[in-house]
Amino acid sequence: MIDFHTHTPAWETSTWLGGAAFGADEFVAFMDSAGIEQAVVLSHDGLFDPTPESNDALAEFVHKYPNRLTGFGTVAVRRKTAVQEAERMVGELGLRGLKLHPWLQGFSMHERVLDPICEVITSVGGVLLSHDGTPPYSTAGQIAALARRHPKLRVVLGHGGLHDLWRESLAMTQETENLYLCLCGTPPYAARRILAEAPPHKVLFGTDAGLSDKASQDYAVARVKEIDGWGITDAQRQAMLIDNPRRLLEKP
Ligand SMILES: [Zn+2]
Questions:
Q1: Which pLDDT band, with edges at 50, 70 and 90, does 22 fall under?
Q2: Could you tell me the fold of the domain covering 2-249?
Q3: What's the average model confidence in pLDDT over 219-226?
Q4: CA within 13 Å, CB half, 59
Q5: I need a labelling partner for 79 at 20 to 30 A (CA). Which of 26, 41, 188, 229 fits?
C-alpha cells in the first residue's frame, strides 16, 4: 500500500505533538512492519516553522530510500522568497509536492500570494496536499477555491475533513475536478460515507505516522487495521491504496 500522509520527526521545533527521534532506517522498518510499501513524507518542523532548512532535512530523509519515500516540502507563503524556495524545493531538492498547513502556518487559502507558488508546483506536475478539517482556516471550501483557481494542479485534502468538516470535504471533492481526499484521522463513520459517495478515483489513505511520540507508530498500525471496518470493497481498496496514489505521484 501507499501511505499518502506521514511525517518526519521534529528535529528543530518543540511542539505539543511531542515527537520521537527516528531516522529513515527506522521509519522504513516501521513501514515494513505495517505493510506500507511507499509513503509520502511531510516535514514536522515545517508545519510550525516553514524554513528552507526544514526542506533540506526532509529531502535528506527521503533520499535515503528514493523508491520508498516521496517528500512534499513547504514554504512560508508570505515570505518574499517563497516562490524561489518552491522552485528550489521541487528542482534542486527533488521534492514532489507542496504541503500547506493554513491553520498552523497562519494564512488563508484565498490569499493571492499562493498563486505563483501553485504555478511552480503545477509546472513540474507536482501535488499540493493541504491540512484540512479545522476551521476557521483549512476548510475544504477554502481549499477547493484555490484548486479552482489552478485547475491543472492536483490538490489533496490531507485529512478528509476530520470530525468537524468531513461532509464539506466530501462535497467539495465531488464538486471540484482536481480535488482529492485523503482519509487520515477521518472518523470511521465518516470514512464509510466518503467511500460510499466520493468518486472512487479520488480517495487516498494516510496514517500520519511519525507525527508524535513512539505511540504514533502504533497508532498508525491501528489506522491501517481500521480500514477493514470501513465496509471497503476490493476494488475500492485497490484504488485507494495503490492506483490513486500512484497516479498522483506520477507526472501527469
Ligand atoms: Zn499530518
A1: confident
A2: TIM Barrel (3.20.20)
A3: 89
A4: 19
A5: 41
Residue 122 Cα to ligand 1 midpoint, Å, equals 22
pLDDT single digits (tens) 177-197? 999 999 999 999 999 999 999
Q: What is the Å distance from ligand 1's center to 41 Cα?
A: 9
CA angle, 230 as apex, 227 and 231 as ends, to 5°?
A: 120
Residue 237 host element (H or E): helix 234-238
pLDDT of residue 12: 85
The ranges assigned to domains in the chain are 2-249
Q: How far is the CA of 124 from the centre of ligand 1 (A)?
A: 23
Distance in Å, CA 131 to ligand 1 centroid: 7
Cell of 112: 493571492
- The answer to whether 45 and 54 are in contact (CB under 8 A) is yes
